[in-house]
Amino acid sequence: MSQAVEVHELSKVFNPGSTKQVDALVEIDLAVSLGEFVSLIGPSGCGKSTLLRLIANLIEPSHGEVLVNDKPASKARLDQDYGMAFQQAGLFDWRSVVKNVELPLELKGWDRTRRRQRAMEMLQLVKLGDFAEHRPWQLSGGMQQRVAIARALATSPQLLLMDEPFGALDEMTREHMQAELLRICAETGTSVVFVTHSIPEAVYLSDRVVVMSPRPGRITHVVDVELGTRRDLDTREDAAFFKKITEVREALRGLDVDLVGDDLPASVEDR
Amino acid sequence: MNERSEFDKLVRAVWPPVVFGVAFLGLWELAVNVFDWKPYFLPKPSAIWGEFSDNVSGIWDAARVSGGNAVFGLVIGTLLGVAMAFLLMRFRLLNDMVTPLAVALNAVPIFVLVAVFNNMFAITSEVPRRLMVTLVVYFIVLVNVAKGLRQVTPTHLELLRSYAAAPSQVLVKARIPHAVPYLFTALKIAAPASVITAFVAEYFGGSQNGLGSRITANLTANTPAAWAYVIGACLLGLAFYLVSISMESITQQLRGGAPRGENT
Lengths: 271, 264
Known about the structure:
Chain A is an alpha/beta fold.
């Protein structure tokens, strides 16, 4: 297997042919290697969430192709080759924490004892083993997001797709979660595609930061972060860290930033 | 010590309404005596109580008729409403045709249709009344449960799609559990509505066997007796209300005690 994700000449048009036609993405090429952490950053409407949803096969491309683990994205989705986390933890209120983590295994048809064992391992990994029988609403926002990550990792996917998973958390929780995510990825060897609004977050987490621009959505810069694999609190105070932040900021600066911030209709139709 | 303070709390919560209630009844009794109001205008509380205690079995029988109609409509209406909600979710065209109508009908007092039903079916049977209660409950349940099945969080739907879940799995894992609190919300609205509809339906004629019809039947000849049936109606309404609020605590348990309920 060569790459975790390969995207070739990918385009997405919403409402084609109508007056509300939006060129969400145009001619995107991107490759994510095994074990690599890639962030997508850009102003609202640049199509970064759309790109993530195309990789996840939650929506279909208008043109071009997406390969995940060398398979078409639709096949990879059916095989559950990736795990997903969103800005909302999206836990099911009527299930206990451990039952939430078990859900993807349940749908895969694992038996009860095996999936309970696996879910408990995942909860240990995110350090919430003591909260298995709690209800989601009894946990803080950061803890809920850790449960969501445990759930995304439950099927041992080699790829994590994350859409601003820490966007709703306070700054301190957020930094803690970033460190936890890096630790988990190092332990499990997972590749990550990570959508974010935050420049320091993108730089701290990533091997590469992909900068995107809106109307039409396209990739304008790719910044290699080169901060090494071991990152900790000192990294955040490192001169090299600030240098990379500046580089990403410069790359974003030239863009036509949409202050209205109308996000694209990226989510699946709910009916 | 702790028990003692719990008891104190209870006493403190109970005495103000009790004192107020007793004082109110006393004033009422006094006013009727002082102003010499005639019984057909306003009977004395003591006279009403006399009629009530003399006729407990008659009131109980009437309450069983009205309450039976309400329960019948509540059960059948709920079953039909839930079944229809599933059909609406399954067939989008049907949903687009029926939902706006159901929402509109839910907002108007459709219980006046009982006059039409009286005309359609044997007026001396309980059919028109039961049909009316069923219809009222049906629309409340339909609108709420359909909403619960449909309005699943988009994040949950995306997650289940990412797990390659089949439509039947989406139904079982997300839509049905999401709709359960909506069903209980609907029952909380429908339970009092069913008993009110059962009473009011009796005002449109038919057999003189329920609480509503006993009130109108006694109003001119024996006003205190009519008031005694009003007490019966209040007690029956209260019973339905208690059932409906206990539904809420069942909902809470089903949601794992989650504090935020879904309101419609």
